[in-house]
Amino acid sequence: MFKDARFWTAVVALSVAGRLIAPFVIPARAPVVAEESISEVRYVCTETGELFTRRLTAATLPHPTTGKPTLVPAVYDAKRKKWKPGPSLEVMQRQGLLRPAS
Asked: Model's pTM, two decimal places?
């Protein structure tokens, strides 16, 4: 059985196929993100409507003066030409709304 060339050809073919298919089936680990590469996004205060540019770290951030967690990621409303509170971070990432502040 082990002297048969067809057996060894099948073993080699399966191992090569496994090596080619594995990267697509088994996800690779996410690379470590450097602190400098974390993007800055616009945050809007839900109480006052003030606009802030901060690093994207959490869904809500504390307001710099009041300390209340009222800053949420913002999206630009082109129709009204102003920034408004956006949806949850997961939804914004799926829709491609999280882009670096310019």
From this structure: 0.55
